[in-house]
Amino acid sequence: FAAVGLKLISSSPSDSVTGVFYPDGVDDSKFRAAVRDNHGVHIAGGQDGRGAKWKASIFRISHMGYVSADDTRAGLDAIETELKAAGALADVAAGSLVKAFNEVHG
Fold first, then answer.
1. What pLDDT does 53 receive?
2. Strand, coil or helix: what is 3?
3. Across the strands, what pairs with 20?
4. Residue 85's pLDDT is what?
């Protein structure tokens, strides 16, 4: 995510979920609906509680259980595509998230 300027919630994410802060101006519910409806990828929104105020500020990606490299590529492509459609990542070349993933994971 750093390859396109997105910030993770944790510097050492868990093995089961990754939280990512939205860029300014992205509407949480519209973004998640577009990712689901246009790409068949389901991501979760943030939650408030335990001192955190993350509702509508973050999205969460589950990678618990079997998640193939192709599943990950599809999810990253969907996220990047819909963030661009929402007006974010304007200076990022198309395919940058998948490219960064491929450089690390082949």
1. 86
2. helix
3. 8, 59
4. 97
Q: Which parts of the chain have pLDDT scores under 70? A: none
Strand partners, 21: 58
Scan for tokens 């500020």, then name that residue.
Answer: 57
Q: Which residues does 8 contact at the CB level (< 8 Å), separation at least 6?
A: 1, 2, 18, 19, 20, 21
Nearest by Cα to 61 from 48, 77, 84: 77
pTM of structure: 0.92
Check if the beta carbon of residue 26 is closer than 8 Å to that of residue 88: yes
**Alpha helix positions (H), the chain:** 28-39, 69-85, 96-105
Structure tokens at 49: 């509680």
Res 33: pLDDT? 98
Beta bridge partners of 17: 62
- Quote the pLDDT of residue 73: 96
